[in-house]
Design goal:
The chain has 416 residues and is α/β, with parallel strands linked by helices. It contains 13 helices and 15 strands. 31% of the residues lie in helices and 13% in strands.
């Protein structure tokens, strides 16, 4: 079917410095529809004992970093596979590519839209393509999630979207209004994002907030010794929206410079903090240490922060988890099936070429099905701390094709 197109670390604030040039919006930019080459089928790249993610099929709606929000901490803009452009490219053929893969599969993991750019940017061409993709997934009965800083309200007009059960929406809110104006200047404001969450929750949609990343030194630079009380106030605001779950991280930064060689992600964040408080910037320099392939808040500090924050969240009737940087045992609310709370099962092909959900499946196979020789889906190879391989999801015939190179099965590709 074709779809039309705490009191620790007191840091007194200092006087504001001129706005960094990196915060100046370079938009509006020309929009170009481009065809993506090859399959979109790949999982989260994390592996080993630190993996917390369920298996998800990640579908990005633009090439990495093609986003008008221009977040300072955007890993996609600094990735080796990023190809910056003065234009915003939007993929024009995702439903067709996805449907081609679906017709070869016997098992389909939940789908994540979109991890290297925002699927709800205020770009008409992008909204049209996201609508087409979501319509396809609903018609095939596929589980999916949407992660955004933008307004997903345009999807509420899609027939059946509000009542469709196997989905959740994650809204990223990385601070209060002042923090957001520094970190994601091209994205909707704090008030707007809180409003989006409130609307979705009022409609009964499973919604979570990604309080992510939280740069505690930026809060210290702005609010001094009362910085954690400011965060407590944010948690109160989040609770008032009706949201059920908070995912948090303190960020993973790279010192790799952009293609023009001027700044690294770490330098961008350091400069924003330095503009408000030299003392907070010094502590940021000292307390973000190299670990797990990037610069993370020192382990004892982030453990203390997350455990304090979890207590606040749970006192207000919500659940809490961290994204990758601590184990579930150390930082997450008890009883969660995975870090994003809401269960999105794998689905299995039916005779009519559509899919039905697999009973008792959480997609977090390495935990939920640990020790089972016959998991509900029938594919024991998915019980792994590694990303899935496409061959695990295909019919026997298509699996043989994949092993000979018919499917892309690696990390996010740099190709269009």
């Amino acid at each position: 079917m074709i779809y039309p197109s705490s009191k620790s670390f007191p840091c007194p604030p200092s006087s504001s410095a001129p706005l960094l040039s990196t915060l100046k919006s370079a938009f509006p930019a020309p929009i170009r529809l481009v065809a993506k080459r090859g399959s979109t089928l790949h999982d989260y790249p994390y592996e080993g004992i630190n993996r917390k993610c369920p298996h998800f099929w990640i579908i990005n709606v633009t090439p990495p970093g093609h986003c008008i929000h221009r977040c300072l901490y955007c890993y996609a803009r600094y990735a080796i596979y990023s190809r910056p452009s003065s234009e915003i490219f939007v993929y024009s053929n995702l439903p067709e590519l996805v449907e081609k893969d679906l017709k070869r599969m016997t098992l389909c993991p939940p789908i994540s839209i979109s991890n290297t750019s925002d699927p709800c940017q205020p770009i008409p061409e992008l909204k049209t393509e996201v609508e087409r993709l979501v319509r396809l997934l609903m018609d095939y009965n596929i589980s999916f999630s949407i992660t955004t800083k933008g307004d997903p309200g345009f999807l509420l007009d899609l027939p059946g979207f509000t009542s469709y059960k196997r989905k959740f929406i994650a809204l990223t809110i990385e601070g209060d209004a002042e923090v957001i104006s520094m970190l994601s200047p091209g994205a909707p404001s704090f008030e707007e994002r809180v409003g989006f969450v409130r609307q979705l929750s009022s409609l009964g949609l499973d919604t979570l907030i990604r309080f992510d990343p939280v740069f505690i030194h930026l809060f210290q630079a702005i609010y001094g010794g009362s910085w954690f009380r400011k965060i407590e106030g944010l948690i109160d605001t989040f609770a008032s929206t009706g949201v059920k779950h908070i995912v948090c991280s303190t960020g993973r930064l790279s010192r790799r410079k952009t293609e023009n060689g001027k700044h690294s992600m770490w330098q961008e964040i350091h400069q924003v903090i330095q503009a408000r408080s030299a003392l907070a910037a010094k502590r940021f320099d000292q307390e973000y240490c190299y670990e797990q392939g990037g610069y993370l808040l020192r382990r004892d500090l982030r453990l203390r922060f997350h455990q304090s924050l979890r207590a606040l969240v749970e006192e207000r009737g919500m659940t809490y988890s961290t994204c990758q940087e601590l184990s579930a045992r150390e930082s997450d609310s008890e009883g969660l099936p995975h870090c994003q709370r809401f269960i999105l099962p794998f689905v299995r092909i039916r005779n009519d070429s559509h899919f039905e959900p697999i009973k008792d499946c959480t997609a977090n196979c390495h935990l939920s099905c640990q020790g089972l020789s016959h998991p509900p889906c029938g594919q024991s190879k998915l019980i792994s701390l590694h990303p899935f391989k496409a061959s695990y999801l295909l019919s026997n015939t298509e699996s043989r094709i994949e092993k000979t190179g018919g499917f892309h099965n690696g990390p996010v590709s740099s190709s269009l």
